[in-house]
Automatic annotation (TrEMBL):
This is Acyl-CoA acyltransferase. It comes from Bradyrhizobium lablabi. It comes from the Bacteria. SUPFAM superfamilies: Acyl-CoA N-acyltransferases (Nat).
Amino acid sequence: MIAQRIRCREISEADLDAVAELLTRGFTGRSRDYWMRGLRRQAVREVPDGYPRFGYMLDNDGHAIGVLLLLYTSRTSGGETAIQCNLSSWYVEPAFRNYAPLLTKIAQRHKEVTYLNISPATWTWPIIEAQGFASYCSGLFFSIPVLSRVTKGMTVETVAPDARSIAGLSEVEVELLTRHARYGCLSLVCRTRDGNAFPFILLPMRIRRGWIAPPAMQLIYCRDVTEYVQCAGAIGRVLLRHGKLSVILDSNGKVPGLVGLYSSARGRKYFKGPHAPRLADLTDTELVLYGP
């Protein structure tokens, strides 16, 4: 009997085809093209120095038998740079499941990093909590923004993927909005009559189960949920032209000032680490790079 040589190592660009094949087998609802599109985006995005670009894989004599995708991002928290890592798609071939803890142990070894799990299956919630993760988002609020009042004099601009500057926004915000527009998001700027500018990023969503299934967008980014409440009426009328009725917000309950419905049946999100994530910021996560 030949002993198996299994090791956990970083994923390299040379591994992407094998990783995509493995994930396609593991996630039957996702095509190989879905995985390759996301992996190509990971290949060219900015990653903080010293952290893996793609994540880790289990290697059995040169064959990919397990994978855990990681998306590292630098964030500003309290005036300091903080590192955030979205623990994304995880799969290990059934015959090698006893090696799976190697992936999670290595992936979560950095004490200075805040780790996120933004798409846990319902049945995994107790397991994730047992691993030391805490919930920062308990559900989703399905808002109907067109039913909100439009602030007098408010206008809405769509941000082009190649925009160089946007009046009223910082260079960092402009780069954030244009980058996400290139990922296929809808980036908007709402302006008030007195010249205030409010940036928003939304992503078309597929709601695959449940009794509520409106044509929807997920709120990926705003500075604060109160700004979305203020601009909801104007945004809702723009989205109607895109055939979208609802905007979904990460939430811990009903959102004052919005018409809609809160549900805790889905949408729970977890973190572990020194900096609790805030609601209304899913930028540069798997939801954006890979898609809903």
